[in-house]
Input
Amino acid sequence: MVKKWIAKALSRPGSLHSALNIPKKEKIPISLLNAIINAKAGQIIKNPTSKGKKIIKVTRKLEQRAILVRNLKNMKK
Output
């Protein structure tokens, strides 16, 4: 088991922002994260919010990044 897995997981900061065309200064809406996570890899979904791309193709890597962001948002500091 890797001791510092969060540091390794965050090796590419901003990659989810760039994949969704959302500026790094803005937060990614939780409804968009949930839509990506609930879709299967290979599906094309419509963005439920007004930020970023309107149509998103869900890949496994995009889904993994969305799961990580949602988990990190729910962690208490």
In short: The two ends are 22 Å apart (CA to CA). The chain has four helices and two strands.
